[in-house]
Amino acid sequence: MKTIKILFFILSFSFAGKALALQPNVLYILTDDHRYDAVRAFNKMLTGNEMSELGYVESPQIDKLTEMGTTFINTYCQAQGCAPSRASMHYGRYPFRSGIYEFEYHNNTLKHSRPTLPEQMVNLGYQTFHVGKLGVRIKTLENGKTKSYPIYQTDIDFRTLARENLTAWGKDWISEIDGKKLEKPLQNVNFFVNAEGKREYLATEIEDLGFQEKGIAEGAVKKYDLLRKIKGKKKATFDIGMIIGGVSSREAGKTRDGYYTSVFQDYLKNANKPFEVGSLSYDGVNSSKPVFIHLGYDFPHTPVLPPADYRERFKKHSYKVPELSDTEYAEMARQMKTVVDRNFTDNYSDEDKQTMIQDYFAFCAYGDKLVGDAVDEFIKYSEAQKQEWMVIYVHGDHGWKLNEHGAISKFTPWDIDSHNPIVVVSSDKKLFPAGKVVREFTEFVDVAPTALAAAGAKLKSDEYSYLDGLDLAKVVNGKAPVRDYVIGESHAVTGPRAFIRTKDYVFSIQTRPNTKHGGDMKWALNADYKDLDPALYDMSKDPQEVNNVAFDKKYKAIAEAMKNKLLNIVLGDNRVEVNWEKWGSGTEVFYSNFAPGAHDYKLKLPKK
Known about the structure:
The chain has 608 residues and is an alpha/beta fold.
């Protein structure tokens, strides 16, 4: 009996004392620009209706995930831009604690720097693998110069696959074509890979140089029925870099997201042996170790190019297009109006508005199938190896407007841009019960502590004290603090802006006079209320957040309480700002900590 107990102890714990030996394989899936109303199950939980208020959507695979696991339906992102949002998940830290507020390249050598999630998983005995979009712009410094810093042991990204022509659409710096060097490299050239596997460049410069037949670039616009975003509120000038509608040049499964899925599947199918990705070779999963996998999908981010069969099916549906009123536009906060003006779609034709919505939801439906394929392969592998497993599905790094507030794109604290549910499915149903819906607030900073806790990390130890989030397993069993609010701050496109959201209200303001980090860190504490460019929405009366009541006298006390709480947290509770410089080589760090402990999850608001 004594021998059995000793063996059980050895099996249960690693000799480092940190991590469980019976650690689950973890699959962390993240989509991009994904609205919550693209999933029927989420709509049912939030509104009682399966379909979006705009119209028809389909999501059988993500719906299935919600049946298999626990849905955290009121999860909010910390920043409504790709890079800062993804950084908050990979670091488990708010932007104002990491110093990453927008699309900055940053380095990991500073005093406040901490390891990323995959690095911590390696410390706990995991192998790590990533395929697809990452968006964490991390560098390291050597002799004052930046150097690439891979955070996953095996990383197969979009550009790698694009160079192998394993995407239907690609974007790259072109220095040579068919073995012939260009005199001057072309930056960020868009191209399609057609059904024959050949590139069709959307750059007339390449045709002028004689590397592509005249007319292919222009012909591709018609061939793939491209709808491009108009630059700002003007009707004539198109932004050729942002495709918001069209059809994929390849069939389902042969798109960039399709290849992310098949490469991931090949990684698991080729355990303990190499596998091929185009002309490249990678090692398959090591079946003797637990694995942490990040599958970063691009869908439904632009270019919005669903495969032809999905597109044809969704063309049969008509959608209700949100409308922008003159009153809403006039009352908008200045920073939020900047986003709307730059991404204005309210002046598109009715046909173009239908196209951008139809193609978006068609793309979401196609991506839903890929998510299901990936999860099925992951569970199949884990069960074949007799290993425990966990899936963390994050529905978008932020949301996406489809003419809400008169615009397309993201970047604002409006609900449609920042509300992104999480589903956790586990082989341990006691941790994450099947079909359970958690309605308490959760945040993107919860992703890292959830994965680390599952891997056996002792989150109360000093090693993990930097984490800002909560273990979602603790949220499920009622052992985590209940949040009265969620918070965030983003500087991308809007300029510096922070928000705080409660059950009934969302309040946001400008946090500094400019984007130069380090100076005027307390500017907002003394600025006139009007100069803070406030926005306040009362969701109990205005669920679409169209009536800005920040200057309504009836809401003065509420606005004041939310402003004070927000500023004390984001400006005064261990704030960090860094002059990162162009390629992340900056080392000048600024701190502000005049209100330590302000972020206590509690906020009692006065009545109107």
